[in-house]
Amino acid sequence: MKNLIFIFVLLFMFSSCGILKKDKTEQKTQETVKTEPEENKTATATGSSEEKEERKKSTGLGEIEYNLKEIPSGVEYKGKIVASARWDDDNGDNILLVTETKKKEVPDKKYPEETVFEKELYGYHYILSGSSAKLLWKIQDFEKDCMFDLTLEYIPKSLSITDLNNNGIAESTFIYKMTCRGDVSPALFKLMMHENENKYAIRGEGIVKTPTESYGTGKMNVDKSFNDAPDEFLKYAKEQWNKFKFERFE
In angstroms, how far is CA 83 from the centroid of its own chain? Predict the structure, then answer.
């Protein structure tokens, strides 16, 4: 009888140990599952911060903001802003504006009884420091004495800020078109690229596309200023030209 009781006690003790071990294992598993989301969240945030830091190291540029909602005081310009960007590089805090004036009808200088149209386009690059703004460069172009349909327009979405040669100084690139025409002949296109005060340009003919036909060659004339630029500059400029050289008429 004593032997039976002893065996029963041993069985009960082994069974209890198994249950306790199982409970501890389940508790440990639950705790592990609970902590995983927190670990993943931390890793994601750290990775995001590292990516930003790596980008800044590799390009020398901070965050690039396009289509600015507010223009800092001290930044002077003429006309209406049609494109804008702000970024940080080794020059500091940069802001670029492309502006257009309204098309005006004015008396013809040769024939005062007649009227002609004129319009201007500007580009500005400022470096900001506190409440002051220093003008790095400015360009101005115009179409005037036009008796027909005057066009002088920035090409939407063509403004880009890059650091193609990874020297910590950004390049800015944008394209606009200009012409005075009474038909669907192609406009003159101009691409302007700057790094610091250095200007690089491509000028040429656009391509007009209608539902049934195309007009123009899209041929570009590369300015000799590119001869002294890094190869990456001209390569990128040609890519942008071929992307934006089209006009579409419905």
Answer: 11
Closest CA to 191 of 170, 207, 208, 177: 177
Under DSSP, the state recorded for 102 is: P
24 by Cβ neighbours in 10 Å (0-12 / 13-18 / 19+) ranks as exposed
> Hey, is 63 helix, strand or coil?
coil
% the chain with pLDDT above 70: 76
**Whole-structure pTM over 0.85, yes or no?**
no
pLDDT tens digits, residue range 98-118? 999 999 999 999 999 999 999
Residue 199 contacts residue 236 (beta carbons within 8 Å)? no
In the block, residue with structure tokens 């006009």:
247
Structure tokens at 208: 């007009």
HSE of 52, CA atoms in CB hemisphere, 13 A? 8
Q: What is the pLDDT of residue 39?
A: 30
